Amino acid sequence: MHSLSKINLADTAVEAIRTEILGRRWAVGAKLPNEAALSAMLSVSRGTVREAVRVLVSQGYLETRQGSGTYVVSTADTVRPLGMARRAGLRDQFEARLALDVEAARLAALRQTPAVIAGLRALLAARGPYAENDKTDFIARDFAFHQAVIAASRNAVLIGMYDFFSTLIAETIEATLGQDLPEPDMAAHVAIVDAIESGDPDAADAAVRRFMAPVLSALDRLLMS
Amino acid sequence: MHSLSKINLADTAVEAIRTEILGRRWAVGAKLPNEAALSAMLSVSRGTVREAVRVLVSQGYLETRQGSGTYVVSTADTVRPLGMARRAGLRDQFEARLALDVEAARLAALRQTPAVIAGLRALLAARGPYAENDKTDFIARDFAFHQAVIAASRNAVLIGMYDFFSTLIAETIEATLGQDLPEPDMAAHVAIVDAIESGDPDAADAAVRRFMAPVLSALDRLLMS
DNA sequence: AGTCATAAAGTCATCAGATGACTTTATGAC
DNA sequence: GTCATAAAGTCATCTGATGACTTTATGACT
Fold first, then answer.
1. Chain A environment of B75 (Cβ under 8 Å)
2. What is the model's pTM?
């Protein structure tokens, strides 16, 4: 329970600047005071200001142009959403991933081609049934299949976010559950591909939800106990 | 089209370290070399190493403990997903937000209470019909309603991500479209609340999709031209 | 031997100053 | 009025130093 009492200067500077941006006091397109001025305003060294600014650049708020200055490029908060996701409960994380999964499957159905379907079936064949002895590899092959389903949506945003949530969920399970969740059988996997191939987004939607339902139930039981 | 030729040292350092983490060469829980060693390994100054490390801390990969060292805490890539979202097309952004919107509405239906429904209707009443003269305020009130719908899902991840995408989409429209998208009428808004109140997730799902369909069509027409 | 306070070493946090690279603005000749 | 050039402004990076905090080693004491 680390309260906010022990916070370092650079993070304080980040929050101070972020607050100015989110409060629209430095609007999009505006130029920030130079490093020396910020240093004086925040009463920290220039090095600390640079660390803070670089963090905000990496988060998409600012842009620095050597020789010119530092500018606000966006007020969209990229950090809170996924930072929040990191600290959220497993149930919330699953629900978010399911949202992406379902929408990706719908789009995949609308945009499916024979080549993509063939690729999915090939991945499913390579995945094979579960075997106790090569658990790590099996998980990797299984993940490759699911990634390919998302990729079939041809939506870069969904693809990127799905990757993030998958990794995050794996880590959260490792850290909090200490137990595996049930893995749907081959028939459930095939049903998703079939639904996408049919070109019917509602069918794809339903297939994914049927796929995930038992996993969510198992999760709820584990979180109860 | 800014190629990778002109990249600064700190970003290079960030990528170098991130690659090590993502490649599992520094596993979760592992301790990184100290700043002086990293400085030598990457052939950059300690200050530059600190900027890189702080970026990775802000992205959730690392954790620094004063007096102890720097440790890997996660391999989940938080920066690519939303960074990708930022550079993605408006269509992709809309589809991602729709995914969140639909799932949130489903959960809201499952978890609805009379108090929440009353709150939604109050927001809708306060929002009122569109009036040309107070466009800015109207948009704020409209956004407050939609936020409340998402909040009714009681899923922190969905709430955070929805905020992000809403801001992002607004900025992308401003930057690329230079034209507003059609705003669904009051009936469409009421339909969402009614569906949530009914407690039927499928109805809520459908209401949101009906709500968004004309907006997406208009977007496609604009992107075509 | 075991315990425990203390010292020492290791590491991050922060500051100060300096130089280089790049961009923007001002200057002045033509 | 145009345009090459100089000057000023600003970020990028390096070097060196000090402080704060944590971990480990030491050694006295029981």
1. 167, 171
2. 0.82
